[in-house]
Write a structure and sequence with these properties.
The chain is α+β, with helices and mostly antiparallel strands. It has two domains: 51 residues, N-terminal domain of TfIIb (Single Sheet), CATH 2.20.25.10; 89 residues, K homology (KH) domain (GMP Synthetase, Chain A, domain 3), CATH 3.30.300. 30% of the residues lie in helices and 19% in strands. A hairpin with a 6-residue loop joins strand 4 and strand 5. Helix 2 packs across helix 3. The N and C termini lie far apart (45 Å).
């Protein structure tokens, strides 16, 4: 097996096109499972088969636990993307990071605006051996390029469509 390496710094090059340029699309399907409810007993599978998880309502929300949940999946994606962008930003600035860690917390809760539900995200970055001012600059720069941070700050294109089998 080939040794895993970080992506090239060219990923930080600015794109000059006029339209969204698709680079990769992750696709998953969630089915309802035993309770016919994606959050309570769902199964999530990626189209390439590498992701195959049981979803369970966490005990804190009245469920049995025992499986992952959408908040954990979102937190994992956010933390992984932010970590990757952080490493690239540091490398582009000639800074080597060792043992860097990104912790993401995604909280599901009640929305006082409409009385329904919303999410909040908290990201904590640990950069051992890096001076605080440099660490803060790296994190601010990463916030500007990490797609998850951008989505949280400025929104996202969101298309919801209905498909009914005939």
């Amino acid at each position: 097996m080939d040794k895993l390496t970080p992506p090239p710094l060219t990923l930080l090059d600015k794109y000059r096109g006029h339209e969204f340029e698709e680079l990769y699309t992750g696709r998953v399907r969630v089915t309802g499972g035993e309770a016919e409810h994606g959050r309570a007993s769902g199964v999530v599978r990626s189209d390439d088969g590498t992701l195959d998880l049981n979803l369970r309502l966490p005990a804190a929300m009245g469920g049995p636990g025992g499986g992952t949940n959408p908040e954990q999946l979102f937190a994992a994606g956010y933390a992984a993307c932010f970590h990757g962008a952080l490493v690239l930003v540091a490398a582009k600035n000639g800074i080597e990071l060792h043992d860097a860690a990104v912790d993401a917390s995604v909280t599901f809760g009640r929305d006082p605006v409409d009385g329904l539900y919303t999410l909040s995200v908290e990201v904590r970055v640990q950069l051992p051996g890096i001076q605080r001012a440099i660490a803060e600059q790296l994190v601010r720069s990463t916030e500007r390029i990490c797609p998850y941070a951008k989505m949280a700050r400025q929104g996202i294109v969101n298309v919801v469509a209905v498909h009914v089998d005939g």
